[in-house]
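call fold(seq) -> tokens
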Amino acid sequence: MQRAGEQISETGAAARYAEAVPRYTSYPTAPHFHAGVTGETFRGWLAETGEEEALSLYVHIPFCDRLCWFCACHTKMTRRYEPVAAFLDALFCEIRTVGDILKGRGRVRALHFGGGSPTMLRADDIVRLGAALKRAFHFANDAEISVELDPNDMDEARFDALAEIGMTRASLGVQDFDPRVQKAINREQTFEQTKAVVDGVRARGVRSVNLDLLYGLPHQTCESVAVTIRQALTLSPDRIALFGYAHVPWFKKHQTMIDEAWLPGPEQRFEQQQETARIIREAGYQAIGIDHFAKPDDPLAVAARQGRLFRNFQGYTEDACRTLIGLGPSSVSRLPQGYAQNMPATTQYERMAREGNLATVRGIALSDEDHARAWVIERLMCDFAFSGNEAVHRFGACGQRIVAEARTLVRERGIASGLRENDGVFIVEEEARPLVRSTAALFDQYLKRGGARHSVAV
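ret:
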């Protein structure tokens, strides 16, 4: 048994890099959702929304005009626009249904379009969708509107349409600029294309640009990833999301198109993560949690310094809304009462939405214990620490049990737990922070029940 102060061997460290644990964009995590949460359950939860309650909206567009082999998102490829148009008709029905249930309650503070590829929508449909959302929901005047952009989709009409709906933040998928890597993941996109989109959105007043990059992809090395990072930094993004590629071919069959012999091993992934993070920090960016970076004056960086950082299905955010409504197939809603997920199959989702029903097919109601553990895991993921006193103050007996668990972990597992206690605050050791998902997993009661498969810790 390892005690405090002992060092983890190289073999032990490698094992932790390869450990399969959740990403903790929710707790409990999605594999533990069940069919006991129905459309009627979700309807009742929505009806309890307060008049001025802050809301976030997520709109999922489940189509792409090409299928990237690394992608683990819920999407399908189509070259025809007819399926997209049919989906939009159903989405408009769902938007009206949810809006009718809310009856004007709540104020939208943030709206996020994800996919798939939201920019696969035609320009006039982007405008129609924005208008439909603003008819159904009350938007705050300063609501943030963020959109995931595929540079291969963009043209002048789409730039103008996104400006018309009020886009304030653009998120561009880059992954890697190396042509060999791009070919291996079926995502060909030049640096010049990416730069043209960054310039295009900034010319239309978008004040925040985020770039998504990946390490752990086929054929990547520390040296090649460093080249991509330095190219990306020349675009002066306001934020960078640096994710580890999640190879989950049992979940996403198209990932079998990637030869596993091309993938870096756990230690190589860790080296890539460390080297790229170092380059980004040395360029003046503030590290946010395990996989985000932001310029020091960016609201995300300010929130992190002030202890106001949160984590949801889009990753790290300064969005403090605790009610998130997901629209579109597979979308997940998070409310104080629990999680509710829509039907993933697009055709069945469309039928349910057109019939005027909520498309909820599963979810989970949150217990007091779930709320307490969700808070602890979120604080560990965001702050690399949590206050034992605050846990007890917020959650009473549940908080006391978790604090007792934390003390036992520190006492019995020492450095292997990743934690130390200082004056009632449980802190993730500096060297363990890249592996904080593994530390958070120690407080996950559902993970111990087994049955779910996850990506590696780094």
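The CA atoms of residues 48 and 102 lie 8 Å apart.
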